[in-house]
Amino acid sequence: MNYLHVALAALLGAAALAAASWFGVAPLTLVVCALCAVVALGWPQLMGVTARKSLSAVIMAAGVVAAVGAAVVTQVEALFFWSSVALAFGVMVVFVIQVLRGAGRPHRLESTLGACAGVVITTTAAGWVAGLRYPAGLAEAENGIGLGSLRVRGFFPYEDWGVLGVTGPGGELSVVALAAFALMVGTVAACIPARDALVLPLTIAVAAAAAVVTALVWGELTLLFAAAVGLAAGVLLASFRRFLFLQGAPEQLLSRLAVGAAPVAAMGAIVYFTERLLFA
């Protein structure tokens, strides 16, 4: 029963991202900020650190600054700029807090490392916003070769059907929904009560298959990108499942929600940089 909250947090987080991507950047930014809030509230508790209120505030602020920054910048090169700034200042503030606590405080090292990990997770969540805003060019290369040759035509009309948010505002491609679908299907597979030797590879395979099938059904998505994002989502979920089963389910509700929301938030950076790499 303790694992139910973890799974629900991951499923609801991914579903909210997919739905928000259809409505635009502002709703998606709000969802990302909400994800950061869930992680920020439960992460210090999960890590067993002290000074939880101040560290939660830092983790939350870093994620919000990164997400809002990705939403308001006007240049493609700056989409992840504020994530870097928020990460750097967030880590600095964590160290300042530890210094201000004074000498002889217990669990100082654990508090520092745990809070820094939380800052990394929330600042990478901005990749969801950056991924939606990035102008993914899928035009064929002039010589007829390249990544464009992997583009597929879906079974349904891409331009006129925005079902489930695979097409974004104005009919533009939304890779956010594709990644969110892969996370949702992978989360369901990761919840199978069986041995890790079976479930971990199954989670990776199912997430990759879900992304590729989405590309085939709705079209205008490269199979290479879909497979890469699906595999990344599966590996991320499998890693968190392994970690969770080794450590056991957290006792506190906020900690369970943070564990479920963390892989969804961290997936943002993978989505954005995979998009930049394959659609540049």
3D structure, described in words:
- With 280 residues, this protein is mainly alpha-helical.
- It has one domain.
- It is built from ten helices and no strands.
- Helix 1 packs antiparallel against helix 2 and helix 2 packs antiparallel against helix 3.
- The longest helix is centred in the C-terminal third of the chain and has 27 residues.
How would you sum up the major sheet? none
Query: How many domain modules?
Result: 1
* Radius of gyration of CA atoms, rounded to a whole number: 19 Å
Beta fraction of the residues? under 5%
Q: SSE string, helix = H, strand = E?
A: HHHHHHHHHH
Put simply, the count of helices is 10
Total number of β-strand segments? 0
Mean pLDDT: 81
Helix content: over 70%
Structure classification: mainly alpha
The first-to-last residue Cα distance is 44 Å
Q: What does the overall shape look like?
A: globular
Summarize this, please?
By secondary structure, the chain is mainly α. The protein has 10 helices and no strands.
